[in-house]
Amino acid sequence: MSWLTPIGFLGLLGLLVLVLIYIIKPNYQNKRISSTYIWQLSLKYKKQRIPVSKIQDLLTFICQVLILAILGTLLAGPVVEALSGEDENEAVIIVDASAGMRISNGENTRFERAVMKAKEKAESTLDKGSAVTFIVADDTPDYLFVRKGVDKKSELLAEIDGIYNTADECCIFGEADISGALTLAEAVLESNSCAKVYLYTGTEYVYDNGVNVINVSEKDEWNASILDCKAELDNDNHYKITVNAACYGKTDFITVYCKIHGVNGDENSIITLEKGEFFDPSAEEKEITFTSEDISSGDIYSYDQIECYVNTKDSLTDDNFYFLYGGKKEVIKIQYASSAPNNFFESAVRTIRQNNRDKWDVQISMPGEGEPFATEGFDIYIFEHKMPDALPTDGVVLLVDPTTAPLGSDLQIGTSYLVDSSSVLSPGASHPLTKYTSAERITIAKYNDVVLSEGYEELMFYSGRPVMLMRDTPESKVVVWAFDLNYSNLIAIPDFSILTYNMFNYFITETFEGSVFEVGETVRFNGRGDELQVKLDGEEVFKGGVKGEFTPTRTGTYEVTQSTAAKELPDEKFYVKIPSSESNTSKTVEILPFTEAESARSIEYEDLILYFAIALVAFMFAEWILEIKKNY
């Protein structure tokens, strides 16, 4: 019951008025009078009627109180909220299709149990003559069918059976977008706010926000998992391996195995390590570290792949393995050729090698005076003063103080000019090559006039003439410093190291950052070839530009190949695992992101007024009868 005009309860103040009347009403007083036998006899009979009179007075007062209470209540507008005619039995069914729903009790998976329970709910709802909406909550939730009735019962149940029969395909390897599925449910509730939402899942929600959550997990389900694995170089350039393992839903001693393939350049070598840990509900996740002390065959400074696994018969096998790649560093060759070499380039390259020792094996070659320099076979060429006849095509070329223009550079080198030694440069186009540097800090006293062709970006100027420029095309990658370092302060300020470091990081890029990703996580490519291809189990899953991106939907090892006309680039691999959050068999989430629709209800109050009116008349009639008896 609710009230249309609660202010009407002020009418109940009449009760106070009634009580006040009874308080101030004059009382009868006893008076002594002369008596006769008849008078005494009348008093006798009157004394016999006093108890009945008191009861009548009390009942009269109660009736008056009830009459005033009913009148005051009627002023407040008593109503009963009734449904507006929509079907309150309509069901919106959501089935969680996340990787965690692949957990099995040995007979069927959580997803299969969820689908069967959802089918039972759909069938019972249809039999009542109510509509059913069915939503599959995967990474991109969608309706299986929307607000279908009993006339389509056999067809709808067949569609649900189709999901059950293809459970392995319908249940994804990543996280489900439950929020998106609930948004679809809310759209249905806009048409019928009285519909009920049912979520079949294996996740426990502390606050369900009005959703009927049916947890299909079972008590004996448990899972051992490899959540993460890292191989890190220590100060001696030897690898230590850290494995993050977990055991959910069971107290047990779990052995973690670590199999290392292709150790230290030997393609046929395999080292197997193992360590056991005791897991219980107070310590479900633990780090296990393998160091040089655990490896009897010697230290590890390179590897082809690391395979970590737990050999258990748990409820989810998709997370029992973990593969780590990237332990075999690609060799990056740099040649520094100069007719008047300085130590600054060598120092900068050594710094680059040290800072990138976990990713690249940087090797530097410095031809001596009179020795021929190479124009192929290197990743980065640095030519200073003396230029090659033709521009190398298989790597990045830095031309420092070019006196002539190599064939293929599309440049023209003009007169060499001497200027005041305090002459500073001015900035040109913003570019990653000049990031964290300032042209105004660099002074020059000698530069070469460069006549540009199309395709070059002008990065720094002196007196309106370009002195630092670059070209980045599939055919050639060229950087030009058109001034003599011996006539500049650049080698004496930090900007020199920053410029060389920027050039290395811009042109020598990792194809992808990291070697392990989760299903649903975007892998962004930044390759060095002309085209990039990704395969899983020999099947092509992506092909496109080297600057593309890809979102894996399945677990496993993905192979990446790049093609380029100039040189052959090595194949690379990365591993995709299910999200760590899906490994927990008893996962609990704080709140279910759902907003209940406002119920569309009408107010019906006629029956209540009638009932109150009947009660009012009854009490008024009772009060009238009592008054009559009291006075007669």
Which keywords apply here?
alpha/beta, five-stranded mixed β-sheet, elongated
What does the model show?
The longest helix is centred in the first third of the chain and has 39 residues, at 37-75. The strands form nine sheets. An eight-stranded mixed β-sheet has the order 17-16-18-19-25-24-23-21, covered by helices on one side. The two termini are 42 Å apart. Strand 28 (531-536) and strand 29 form a beta hairpin. The chain is elongated, with a radius of gyration of 43 Å. It has nine helices and 34 strands. Helix 2 runs antiparallel to helix 9 (606-631) and helix 7 crosses helix 8. It is an alpha/beta fold. Helices cover 24% and strands 33% of the residues.
What is the strand and helix layout of this fold?
Blueprint: E1 2-3, H1 13-24, H2 37-75, E2 78-83, E3 91-96, H3 110-127, E4 132-137, E5 142-148, H4 153-165, H5 167-170, H6 178-189, E6 196-201, E7 204-207, E8 212-215, E9 223-233, E10 239-248, E11 252-261, E12 270-279, E13 285-290, E14 305-310, E15 321-325, E16 330-338, H7 343-355, E17 360-365, E18 380-384, E19 396-400, E20 412-424, E21 426-427, E22 443-451, E23 457-462, E24 465-472, E25 477-481, H8 495-507, E26 516-518, E27 523-524, E28 531-536, E29 539-544, E30 549-550, E31 556-563, E32 572-577, E33 588-591, E34 601-604, H9 606-631
Parallel strand pairs: 3-4, 3-6, 6-8, 7-33, 16-17, 16-18, 18-19, 19-25, 26-32
Antiparallel strand pairs: 1-2, 2-34, 4-5, 9-10, 10-13, 11-12, 11-14, 14-15, 20-22, 21-23, 23-24, 24-25, 27-30, 28-29, 28-31, 31-32
